[in-house]
Amino acid sequence: QLNFLPLVIERYCWGRLFGAMRVAGASRRRRLALTLASPAIPVVLIARRARKVIADRRHVGEFLRCLPVLVGLTLCWCAGEAMGYLTGRESVR
Question: Among 19, 47, 60, 67, who pairs with 81 as Cys (CB 3.0-4.6 Å)?
Answer without folding.
Answer: 19
